[in-house]
């Protein structure tokens, strides 16, 4: 029996995680759940899974949630604030932590889980992008088991030999090939991208996801974040990580080896597959995902990503090559820009421009400690906010 904390339980990944957990009451029990909004959903989840603790952002939400939980007749204890979020991730009663908070807000509790040596199921790619070196050092020092939830990285993990972490050189990996669906605008003429609305950007053809990652998929910043994520997870340099547009989202990524072999992981685009894989690893369990019908899929297409359509992808490679605190700068600027776009304050095409200009301003950002990264993050956010405000005023 594994005891589980789900950070970001009310989100798209959180809900899919609890769907898999509910299918296996003999294997998993919920220790704690967290959420920032959607308190009714969180209360229902606490009741359904008899969670011991729930953590929300502030005191007012905590009072409201405690009331909702009481209406369900459940006994979950409600806590609030950043320290309590870290506490439910590192508690001795916890075996595994699903890190599914979106954005830099997930960094502290995910790091706490790594330091405490938990099985860390990592969906929150922004945490790794922000603090790759420190995060991987924390995993090592804490003796944590890091399992990727991002479908591409989960696919790569599955296509690598079990001995990879012990002896990466012997594995003979030549290239990691991350697949990208191309998002909702892959077939739209680039000259028509200017007036894109938030709802259009969030209408992903293959996946149903949270709004931030949906916009990142449209701009391909998501793939850029994933290139950086792959670098840290698998210790592979940027020139050995390639992106290929594969519109069917059936091949979730591939590993090319020195002998010419290319290994891929395939499946329906449903996050419950990587979630179930990481929950049960090295066992396999039912995820509730329908079997892949290759004849219905019919064909698998591949093409090169067009940098004019997806300018965020080259920006992410540049951030990875620049190293140190630059990926954190890029991530923070992107979070601000996407938020501004989603709330109608920034044009779609300006997202890449905000990121590029903030990266240029903070090109020598450091990454010596978590505190330094948090101040880099704050500085990048402030510059991005200024950029958005001046665009609004213009
Ligand atoms: P979502 O927006 O649906 O859910 C985010 C969760 O985080 C919610 O529970 C929300 O309450 C919580 N949250 C948001 N801001 C918070 C804050 N400041 N403090 C504490 N909690 C906060 O997002 P999602 O689509 O589930 O994505 C979660 C993470 O997983 C992201 O990092 C995303 O990149 C990654 N991911 C998602 C998918 C997917 O299919 N949805 C696939 C791969 C990776
Ligand atoms: Mg992904």
Automatic annotation (TrEMBL):
Residues 146-234 form the 1-deoxy-D-xylulose 5-phosphate reductoisomerase C-terminal domain. Pathway: Isoprenoid biosynthesis; isopentenyl diphosphate biosynthesis via DXP pathway; isopentenyl diphosphate from 1-deoxy-D-xylulose 5-phosphate: step 1/6. 1-deoxy-D-xylulose 5-phosphate binds at residues 125, 151-152, 181, 204, 217, 222-223, 226. It holds the Pfam family DXP_reductoisom. Residues 4-132 form the 1-deoxy-D-xylulose 5-phosphate reductoisomerase N-terminal domain. It catalyses: 2-C-methyl-D-erythritol 4-phosphate + NADP(+) = 1-deoxy-D-xylulose 5-phosphate + NADPH + H(+). Belongs to the DXR family. Catalyzes the NADPH-dependent rearrangement and reduction of 1-deoxy-D-xylulose-5-phosphate (DXP) to 2-C-methyl-D-erythritol 4-phosphate (MEP). Gene3D superfamilies: 1.10.1740.10, NAD(P)-binding Rossmann-like Domain (3.40.50.720). Its EC number is 1.1.1.267. GO terms for biological process: isopentenyl diphosphate biosynthetic process, methylerythritol 4-phosphate pathway involved in terpenoid biosynthetic process. Mn(2+) binds at residues 150, 152, 226. InterPro entries: DXP_reductoisomerase, DXP_reductoisomerase_C, DXP_reductoisomerase_N, DXPR_C, DXPR_C_sf, NAD(P)-bd_dom_sf. It comes from Denitromonas halophila. Its cofactor is Mg(2+); Mn(2+). NADPH binds at residues 10-13, 124, 126, 210. NCBIfam families: Dxr, PRK05447.1-1, PRK12464.1. This is 1-deoxy-D-xylulose 5-phosphate reductoisomerase. Keywords: Isomerase, Isoprene biosynthesis, Magnesium, Manganese, Metal-binding, NADP, Oxidoreductase. Residues 266-382 form the DXP reductoisomerase C-terminal domain. GO terms for molecular function: 1-deoxy-D-xylulose-5-phosphate reductoisomerase activity; isomerase activity; manganese ion binding; NADPH binding.
